[in-house]
Design goal:
Layout (H helix, E strand, L loop, with lengths): L15 E3 L2 E3 L6 E3 L24 E3 L3 E2 L6 E2 L4 E2 L3 E2 L7 E5 L3 E5 L4 E3 L1
């Protein structure tokens, strides 16, 4: 019996083969067994610079805060970002005067 790789999404070791696909019974994730697993998504800012966890970025467009009358102004610096692949927003951060929020990488540039 050959050892199958763990699920890239949840890390479960109980993946099984179904034709050319591997399937995780715990989270339902399916992936192609013949393709090499990606080492992680590369996050790039509006100018194409690669972003890393802990970077400082600058907002390049006025952004309205959903559910509030607040606005994140152009030029606002956001320190110590955390990159995430959850949903369509790539950056978890804390903006001074506003609090925790999520941003898209297309609206920031590396400072």
């Amino acid at each position: 019996m050959s050892a199958l790789p763990a699920c890239p999404q949840c890390g479960s070791e109980y993946a099984y083969e179904d034709g050319a696909l591997l399937i995780c019974p715990e989270c339902g994730h399916e992936w192609n067994a013949s393709e090499p697993l990606a080492q992680g998504k590369v996050f790039r800012d509006a100018n194409g610079n690669e972003l890393q966890d802990g970077d400082t970025v600058t907002v390049i467009k006025d952004l309205k805060v959903k559910g509030s009358s607040l606005v994140v102004k152009v030029g606002t610096k956001v320190k110590n970002i955390r990159l995430t692949e959850e949903g369509d927003h790539d950056i978890d951060c804390k903006v001074d005067g506003i609090g925790p929020m999520k941003l898209k990488t297309e609206f920031v540039k590396k400072a």
